[in-house]
Amino acid sequence: MTSQTVAALRRLVHRSLGTVQALNTDGPLLDFSPSQLGMRKVHSVSCTHAGASTHQSMATFKCTQMPQLQLNRPLSHSSRWCQQEEAQASGKQTTEPVTGKADSSPASSAASHPLPQLEVPDYDKELLFKGLETDFPCLSRLPPAGPEPEYHKISSGYKVFHSQEPFHMKYGGVLPELHIAYETWGELNQDRSNVVILNTGMSASSHAKSHEDNKTPGWWEKFVGPGCSIDTEKFFVICFNALGGCYGSSGPSSVNPLSDKPYGTHFPMVTIEDIVHSSFMLLDDLQIHQVHASVGSSMGGMTSLMAAALYPDRVGRAICISSCAQTHPSTIAMRYLQRRAIMTDPNWARGHYYGVSYPRMGMKLARELGTVTYRSGAEWLNRFARSTISDEPPSLCPHFEIERYIEHQGEQFSVKYDPNSLLYLSKAMDFFDIGEGFPSLLEGLARVKCPVMVMGAKSDILMPVTQQRQLANLLQESGNDGVTYYELDSIYGHDTFLLDLNNVGAAIKGQLETELKERGVVRKGKPKWLQGQDK
Q1: What whole-number distance in Å separates Cα of residue 297 and Cα of residue 239?
Q2: What digits encode the pLDDT tens for the residues 281-321?
Q3: Which residue has the higher pLDDT, 155 or 267?
Q4: Which residues are identified as catalytic?
């Protein structure tokens, strides 16, 4: 076997090939490029040079797993080209070139003089063209689309508030009935004034902490409990699943009692104001008229702030972590891409996929995009650096550990949450503007009379810390003397509120347990950041 043939084999032979036979090795051979190779299997291919004698240059490779090459243009006499060999299937020896005029004399000579066959040793079968992908395990292992998971089975042990009164939404539309799922920890004191509301992020359920009816660890397991940051020996803690969600509260996956079918995209648009009003309907049902604190992060921080603005006489203090006064364009853009990933999945079916299909790929991609915005480059540099999954030569599938991490996040989330709920609640976050309906953002914030703790992380790229600075500053400008601001050096980005127990937890505990000498004052003077800083 000539060095030229070996070079061709290195380009052509893929792992798991059968026998490879070389009928002649004297002529120049075809250079394949990955873009020329399709994904269909063929029995054999023949390679020749258009300007040379076929008897001298014919080389046939019998392959069992090679893609089929489609020739879409004529080849010049100086080209290297390939002809599909049908001889094995038809019993004929094919020697005529695909383009150009065939020379019958050399062809006849080639047919009458069979050439010796050469078995390629096993080690030659491992001469791989590594750029050639005939299989993509990262794609083929994905489960089929639909039907959608039953989300209520993922979260259990919650209670449900049910109102049969029509619920009017801010941007139009009426729900004929309302369901709000919730869970509680601790005991109410005698005057029912020790209530702490936990407002969830976009995709969280009401299960913030394990309890007797659901012993699965909650999303804030270490923050809530006896002696914890939110001390259940002192406070009665209640956590809602937000309106529009899929863990027991009314949302797109809920059944519309008027049609006996899931709402899908017939569900009205949701706003943070709608979420607040629905949760306070539950509080009224529980005969809770005074809230010690409204606590939340991300979307929950928006909800906490809005609760303080809409119910200033009922909310004693607010804690807003990794949130803002109004959603900024950069954040809207990031969430827009997530929504587009879902809505362009054909299985989304304009939001009416329940029981029929499920936009699994769109949901997976949406979460992968979201994960990039929830964490930080600093964390990933420390955690993954440029580590690779294996020592195997790279391919188009995940090669770096960071790629595998992102893929895993997308896969596990895609079956845990309703895509329509992600669309509706991410849009609700984009709508958020505490100054909407007021001449200025400052005047909208002036409704917030209670002490407010604002916290942000320097590494947050979804809601940069400049947005928390703006919120703290504007609250003070509006006349609120109870503003406390913390800026953390955490590397965990937007998810700092889930991971940094020491700093986040200590700040929450201090804010909740500070005795107020008078309403609206937590501590004298400006927070450190606000002293001498530009607004």
Answers
A1: 13
A2: 999 999 999 999 999 999 999 999 999 999 999 999 999 99
A3: 267
A4: 298, 460, 494
Contacts of 467 (CB under 8 A, 6+ apart): 323, 324, 325, 328, 456
How does pLDDT run across 206-223, given as a tens digit for each residue? 999 999 999 999 999 999
Nearest to 27 by CA among 71, 83, 108, 86: 83
- The Cα–Cα gap between 232 and 215 comes to 16
Q: What angle do CA 172, 173, 177 make, to 5 degrees?
A: 140
Q: What is the mean pLDDT of residues 338-352?
A: 97
Q: Which residue has the higher pLDDT, 111 or 290?
A: 290
191, HSE (Cβ side, Cα atoms, 13 Å): 4
Sign of CA dihedral 96, 97, 102, 108: negative
For the domain made up of 161-530, the CATH class stated in words is alpha beta
- Residue at token pair 């051979």: 29
| Rounded Cα gap, residues 433 and 111, in angstroms | 81
- Residue 32's Cβ-count burial label (10 Å; 0-12, 13-18, 19+) is buried
Tell me the C-alpha distance between 307 and 337, whole Å. Answer: 29
Largest Cα span, the chain = 109
CA distances from 532 to 160, 340, 526 (A): 49, 43, 10
Cis peptide preceding 147, ω within 30 of 0: yes
- Quick one: CA torsion of 433, 438, 442, 448, rounded to 10 degrees? -80
Q: What ranges do the domains of the chain cover? A: 3-134, 161-530
